[in-house]
DNA sequence: ATTGCCCAAATGTTGAACATATGTCAGCGT
DNA sequence: ACGCTGACATATGTTCAACATTTGGGCAAT
């Protein structure tokens, strides 16, 4: 038999490669990406595949195709950053792009306290299980954080923690929006390689308090606890809750 | 010369036709849509075009392609309802589908009061102009509402009003989320054909109060004013703020 | 200098052929 | 009678080649 294992190790994904180039800033809004035939040659695939992948980028608003001219990178505001595929790319490649990251963190500062408040009102026992399991996972991989693997696992549970809170709102729109927080959480990982501005133990404690507020059905306290968590994240990222700091200035009473 | 006018009245969009069938409930989650070759025949186009259109539905999570079997409609929860294309389809075709509409209205009840509060803190003079122009447009087409054209214009300004508030948050994520409110606003139009459960003048007055709160930079009052607007919408739609009525039970003080 | 025409280049569309995955069912053995 | 196996039909996935259309710019005539 012929070596069947290698039969479909997937063709090189042009969409993936272009996304990396664009998100990392190599191609910027207004630039033109290479033409179809050039990409065919570069990746050694046929034109149908290239067109299929380019369409993927068009559908999420990242590039714009001008018939007879080329494919242009669109303005950031046109990008469909609510698309899970886009946030996945952002998570992987946008680390060196602070502009996009700041926008996302600003949104999180807006939204997550409110989501936490909503979760505190609607969370079921099953939701609490998911939140608690994620929290315990965070604690499990908290120490011995010099290993990159450990840090990655910690982030996975961090994401799971926040996603569980979004899902506890029991609304499909909120649940789908949870994609948006991945980029900033993973950015936290890659940045903590260089700067240790945040104490993991304190961060964990803030998460614990948020969890307890949701469990105890205390919406107002959950709101504040989520603010505290986000403030810690913002500080660790060196993004000092930009001018649009709603989360901080909210006055609930 | 040959009749050139008809050369590109666009090929029939299979994606559009399938979207209509799916959103209106003709095909439901679990059903299989016609196979590629059947669609080729039905719409008299080639297979590449069909595949291109089907891919569009796959990318937004509406259908799932099973190699060698067919294309299946996915569960509602898997649909990427944050995609502008999806909300556009929903606006046009989902009017008779109350299940999806309820989810969206629930989300609006969650989100819009908060967006209004945020807008009350960040809105610039330019934002206020946009909001006010939309409000005046609503008032202009309020009366003589027996004309379908008048009602459509009123809805356009209604959408513009709410979108302007989303944009006044000055965050690209909120701004993009404004797509989500189109379906329920347009549903309001089609339903007010049959049931006159809402007084347009009262609705306009609620919008005016919301606008004034944002102008006066009164976040808490804006929150409540937005709740009042949404409650009116929910009542007009006959959707009595479902069990997940966060917007009603919020207690800010 | 402006206008109009024509051409090159890039994207858009089409059709066919081949490859791969999936479900069905007849045939065989236990 | 039950279950496994392999061939077959069907539907989706991939590749290739050719043609159509759109865009931008050069060139020439006015």
Protein model, in words:
Two copies of one chain form a homodimer. By secondary structure, chain A is mainly alpha-helical. Chain A folds into two domains: 14-78, Winged helix-like DNA-binding domain superfamily/Winged helix DNA-binding domain (Arc Repressor Mutant, subunit A, Orthogonal Bundle), CATH 1.10.10; 98-249, Four Helix Bundle (Hemerythrin (Met), subunit A) (Up-down Bundle), CATH 1.20.120. Chain A is 62% helix and 4% strand. Chain A contains twelve helices and three strands. In chain A, strands 1-3-2 form a three-stranded antiparallel β-sheet. In chain A, strand 2 (63-66) and strand 3 form a beta hairpin. Chain A is elongated and about 60 Å long. The first copy, chain A, starts with 13 loop residues before the first helix and ends with a helix. Chain A binds chain B through residues 48, 52, 55-56, 59, 76-77, 80-85, 103-104, 106-107, 110, 114, 118, 121-122, 169-177, 180, 219, 244, 246, 249-253, and chain B through 48, 52, 55-56, 59, 76-77, 80-85, 103-104, 106-107, 110-111, 114, 118, 121-122, 169-177, 180, 219-220, 244, 246, 249, 251-253. Chain A binds a DNA duplex (30 and 30 nucleotides) through residues 7-8, 11, 35-37, 45-49, 51, 65-71.
């Amino acid at each position: 038999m012929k070596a069947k294992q290698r039969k479909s190790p997937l063709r090189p994904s042009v969409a993936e490669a272009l996304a990396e180039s664009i998100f990392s800033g190599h191609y910027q809004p207004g630039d033109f990406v290479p033409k179809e035939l050039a990409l065919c040659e570069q990746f050694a695939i046929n034109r149908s595949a290239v067109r299929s992948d380019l369409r993927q980028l068009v559908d999420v608003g990242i590039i714009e195709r001008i018939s007879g001219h080329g494919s242009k990178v669109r303005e950031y505001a046109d990008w469909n950053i609510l698309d899970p595929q886009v946030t996945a790319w952002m998570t992987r490649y946008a680390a060196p792009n602070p502009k996009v990251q700041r926008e996302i963190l600003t949104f999180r500062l807006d939204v997550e306290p409110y989501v936490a408040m909503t979760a505190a009102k609607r969370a079921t026992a099953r939701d609490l299980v998911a939140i608690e399991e994620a929290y315990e996972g965070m604690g499990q991989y908290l120490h011995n954080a010099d290993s990159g693997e450990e840090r990655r696992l910690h982030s996975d549970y961090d994401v799971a923690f926040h996603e569980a809170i979004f899902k506890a709102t029991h609304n499909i729109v909120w649940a789908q929006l949870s994609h948006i927080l991945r980029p900033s959480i993973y950015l936290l990982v890659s940045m903590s390689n260089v700067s240790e501005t945040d104490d993991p133990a304190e961060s964990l404690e803030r998460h614990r308090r948020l969890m307890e507020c949701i469990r105890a059905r205390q919406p107002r306290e959950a709101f504040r606890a989520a603010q505290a968590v986000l403030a810690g994240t913002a500080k660790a990222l060196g993004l000092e809750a930009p001018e649009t700091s709603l989360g901080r200035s909210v006055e609930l009473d």
